[in-house]
Design a protein that fits this description.
By secondary structure, this protein is mostly beta strands. It has one domain: YVTN repeat-like/Quinoprotein amine dehydrogenase (Methylamine Dehydrogenase, Chain H, 7 Propeller), CATH 2.130.10. It is built from two helices and 29 strands. It has helices at 2-20, 346-364, and strands at 26-37, 42-47, 54-58, 61-65, 71-76, 82-85, 91-95, 99-103, 108-112, 118-123, 129-134, 137-143, 150-157, 162-167, 173-178, 182-187, 192-197, 204-207, 213-218, 222-227, 232-237, 244-247, 253-257, 261-265, 270-274, 283-285, 291-295, 300-312, 321-322. The strands form seven sheets. The protein has a five-stranded antiparallel sheet with strand order 18-19-20-21-29, with no helix packed on it. Helix 1 (2-20) runs antiparallel to helix 2. Residues 60-176, 180-298 form the Pyrrolo-quinoline quinone repeat domain. It comes from Methanoculleus bourgensis (strain ATCC 43281 / DSM 3045 / OCM 15 / MS2) (Methanogenium bourgense).
Length: 365
């Protein structure tokens, strides 16, 4: 009897979890939960891990929002370009003519004035390490307990103007997108592990929170999904020029900005699409894949809630090209280390659990 009860409760927990969060490859529905205006063109957005705090940056100001879209504070910036927020929403970093670090209440904790404009910023989950793409250079800063002083831990010259920077949750894996169209993957000490040539210029990149998956896209209407070793999982043409990409915590959900908001599974299936004439250029998805923040050309910021929809997910993009672990090309400089890849095992696990439930019922009849 005790074993039967354990099986029953285990099944209940799994089913409840499946109802609460989107499942890999499952069709999604989305609804806008709030919208707020900035009065200026937004150039970057970010979400906290739980989706309860959001941020947006324009060329002149950075804004911090609560879960209802209320602007908690704003702060003037000079030629703002990028924004990042720590997982708990306690720290916020911005890039532009200056590198600024804010506390949750809007106080400036630290600032850095580089020789050239910062194009991309990233911050670790605990807010203790921040990264900046400055020209062709990548800088890593370590901050003290009060986050009011920082030292440059390391810096490197990529030789390629950096367009975007993304890190995993711990800062142990760092990805940059170069103006040449190359994707660069570094370890936490700044060592280049591999480089992937997309053949597209002005690449935007993102890495999942667990470091398992890398996404890249360009204004030349191509989307790439790679594993952590630089091997291509799939690529697909986009409907429009892609200006931003973002990945969920485990890499199972990819969202891009191409004027609208298409959401893909790890297999390249379109699970949801927000089609609009608002010209969306910036997106960020929460690690649990339940919320998306996006901009519009009208200077508004919106947050959407995602949840499982009835019915199967859409088919993969008809032009998507899926690959099965190809050998890396000479240009990719792939590391020899092995790492775990995600497997679409959710359907098999669900089938096994249902079989177990049926067995339990027969046993107790």
């Amino acid at each position: 009897m005790r074993q039967n009860l354990m099986v029953f409760f285990f099944l209940a927990v799994v089913v409840a979890g499946g109802l609460a969060y989107p499942v890999h490859g499952q069709a999604l529905s989305g609804e806008e939960v709030w919208r707020s205006g900035t009065g200026d063109r937004v150039v970057g957005v970010a979400l906290s891990q739980n989706g309860l705090s959001g941020a947006a940056i324009t060329g002149e100001k950075v804004y911090f929002f609560d879960r209802n879209g209320t602007t908690l504070w704003s702060y003037p910036v000079s030629r703002g370009r990028s924004v990042a927020i720590s997982s708990d929403g306690e720290y916020l970093a911005t890039g532009g003519d200056q590198f600024l670090l804010f506390g949750r209440n809007g106080e400036v904790l630290w600032r850095y004035a580089p020789a050239s404009r910062i194009q991309g910023v990233a911050i670790t989950a605990d807010g203790r390490t921040v990264y900046a793409g400055v020209g062709t250079g990548l800088l890593a800063f370590s901050l003290g307990e009060g986050r009011s002083a920082a030292n440059i831990s390391w810096s490197l010259d990529t030789g390629d103007p950096i367009r975007s920077v993304s890190i995993d949750g711990e800062g142990s894996s760092i990805v940059t997108g170069g103006d040449s169209g190359d994707v660069y993957f570094y370890d936490g000490d700044g060592r280049l592990l591999w480089k992937y040539k997309t053949g597209s210029s002005g690449i935007r990149v993102a890495i999942s929170h667990d470091g398992s998956t890398v996404a890249a896209a360009s204004s030349q209407r191509v989307i790439f999904l790679l594993n952590r070793h630089g091997r291509l999982l799939w690529k697909s043409p986009a409907d429009e020029a892609v200006t931003d990409v973002s990945l969920s915590e485990d890499g199972s959900t990819l969202v891009v900005a191409d004027g609208g908001i298409p959401v893909f599974s790890r297999d390249g299936e379109v699970m949801w699409r927000y089609a609009t004439g608002e010209g969306i250029r910036c997106v960020s998805i929460s690690p649990d894949a339940t919320h998306i923040i996006a901009d519009s050309l009208e200077g508004t910021v919106s947050v959407f809630r995602l949840q499982p929809a009835t019915g199967p997910a859409g088919a993969p993009s008809p032009d998507a090209v899926s690959t099965t672990e190809p050998s890396p090309s000479p240009e990719q400089q792939t590391s020899t280390g092995q790492g775990a890849e995600l497997s679409p095992a959710a359907p098999a696990a669900a089938g096994a659990l249902l079989a177990a439930l049926a067995w339990w019922r027969r046993k107790n009849q």
